[in-house]
Amino acid sequence: MAAFPRRAVFLDRDGTLNRQVGYCGDPARIELIENVARAVTRINEMGLLAVVVTNQSAVARGLVTEAQVRRVNAEVALQLAKAAGARIDAFYYCPHHPSEGQGPFTRDCDCRKPRGGMLRRAADEFGIDLANSFMVGDADIDHQAAKDAHKDLLTFALPSGYNKGLGDVQVSSLWQAVEQISQVLSVR
Length: 188
Ligand SMILES: [Mg+2]
Ligand SMILES: [Zn+2]
Hints:
By secondary structure, this protein is α/β, with parallel strands linked by helices. The chain has a single domain (8-34, 49-116, 141-187), classed as HAD superfamily/HAD-like (Rossmann fold, 3-Layer(aba) Sandwich), CATH 3.40.50. The protein has helices spanning 36-45, 66-84, 117-126, 140-149, 174-187, and strands at residues 8-11, 49-55, 90-94, 134-137, 154-157, 169-170. The radius of gyration is 15 Å and the shape is globular. Magnesium ion is lined by residues 12, 14-16, 137-139. Zinc ion (ZN) binds next to loops.
């Protein structure tokens, strides 16, 4: 842990920042969800790190290359910056799948959500105080990964077919999650 631990908002990518489009290696298909750029800007302004953690098993499945994942991440970052000057501090992705595919990425790993490896790695690299950080995602595995990283990490869940209600707080939008995070910060 760094001398001055920082708080982060961990963000799922697909279905949270950009519209869900299935396995995607093409930046041209990336379209931000309404108002997310303003919400990320608000995260930046609150002094919290904005860290994306995304499962990309399309790599293990042989459908998308790692270079394509990075290009799509860059496109998300670019659109956020263009729309509202928003900044993503880091992207982490898991290219693995425990059984699908037949290359080096087909293996059990610590980073595929619902496991918390990506959050732990970010915590090590940035000196993040996980207990006082936040997760926003549209799937139960986002909540589970956050709790695997730290039981006290507060999770916000967006409506989707992948959300069966596990999140600590159900919200209608990333903007609403960020509003609630700002309230938590003002009382802690
Ligand atoms: Mg998602
Ligand atoms: Zn992995």
